[in-house]
Amino acid sequence: MPVIAFANPKGGTAKSTTALILSTTYAKSGAPVCVIDADPNRAIVEWGSGGGMKNLTVVSTKGADEIIDEIEKAVPNHAFVIVDLEGTANSIVTNTLAVADY
Q1: Contact 67, 38 (CB under 8 A)
Q2: Across the chain, how many H-helices and E-strands are there?
Q3: What does each C-alpha distance from 47 to 16, 20, 51, 71 come to in angstroms?
Q4: Neighbours of 55 (CB within 10 A)
Q5: pLDDT beneath 50: ranges in the chain
Q6: Could you say which DSSP state residue 34 is in?
Q7: Would you give the distance in Å from CA 35 to the centre of its chain?
Q8: How far is 62 from 7, CA to CA, in rounded Å?
Q9: Which of 44, 54, 86, 100 is the right S-S partner for 5, CB 3.0 to 4.6 Å?
C-alpha cells in the first residue's frame, strides 16, 4: 500500500489542505485511508475530531522516533497512508521520506 508524504520546507504551501483533499477523495471511493498528522498545528486531527468519515482514520504522531512505527502499523490495514508533515526540514520529515513511496 502506498505511503504518500506531503513535505515542503516552507510553511503555508497547502500541504495539509492537499493531504485532506486526497485522503477524503480516496475514502469516498471506498478505499481505507489512514492520515498521519505530523504537523504540530494538527489541522487534520482537529478536522477529524469533528466526526468520523467512513474509511478514513486520522491519527496524530508522537514524533520523529515513532513516525516510522506508526506508518508501518497503518500500512497493512489501509489502501493508502497519507502523512502530513510540518513546513520545516527536521528529523520527522527525514524519517518519513525514508519510508514513503511518494
Answers
A1: yes
A2: 4, 4
A3: 11, 9, 8, 20
A4: 19
A5: none
A6: E
A7: 4
A8: 18
A9: 100
